[in-house]
Amino acid sequence: MKWVLLALLLLTVLILIILITKVKIFIDYFHGNDNDHLKITVKAWGGLIKYKVDIPVIKIDDNSPTIVAEQKIHTGPNENMKQEKISQVDKTDLLNSINDFKHLVTHVAGLHKIIRGFLRKVTLRKIEWHTMVGVGDAAATGVITGAFWAVKGGLIGVLSHYMKLKDMPVMSITPSFQHAVSITSFKCMIQVRVGHAILAGIKLVKYWKGGWPEFKTKPLSVLSGDKTNTV
Length: 231
Fold this sequence. Notes:
Layout: H1 2-20, E1 22-32, E2 35-44, E3 49-60, E4 67-75, E5 80-89, H2 91-107, H3 111-119, E6 123-135, H4 138-162, E7 164-165, E8 170-175, E9 180-193, H5 194-206, H6 221-224, E10 228-230
Parallel strand pairs: 6-7, 6-8
Antiparallel strand pairs: 1-2, 1-9, 2-3, 3-4, 4-5, 5-10, 6-9
Helix pairs in contact: 3-5
């Protein structure tokens, strides 16, 4: 009997630890003219649990209307490379994703409320967003620079409305009046407790209605390697 109680106690403590665990998601995106690089790192327990998706090249395929992404996945504290793949996403994938989202909205009562409630628990920190832009014409570059400031301000306003914005964003826009340039660097850290994510998932199940829909795509199909060629 004592061993059963001890096992239940240890299981309860383990569940509590998992529920209060904070997961940190680091997003690092760089766009420089025709080159794109995206890195997403997920950490928990001080880096003891670590998962990193490194997509060094994102471009339009020259031979077909698809987006090509080279992808590297690293896991563990030492970031041992697990796999390397090349993914292609076409308009069919995009349309299927839109269709699946419509199904989700239809089948979950109060989906927007559930998402808003979850995002209120999410903390957004360390936003750095720097841009250099130019089209080779001084007047047009000035107009575009002003438009970029409006877009950045609007997006940050939306994010701060739905999430907890802890740090003041560091942003800059550098106009290039003489040359055509398009360079953007964006970094941020998203922090959320596992318990809040689990609670949001439970609410999705609780308020599900109308039976199970037929999704046309799998969750995170691009990042998980669906429709990819292994290198």
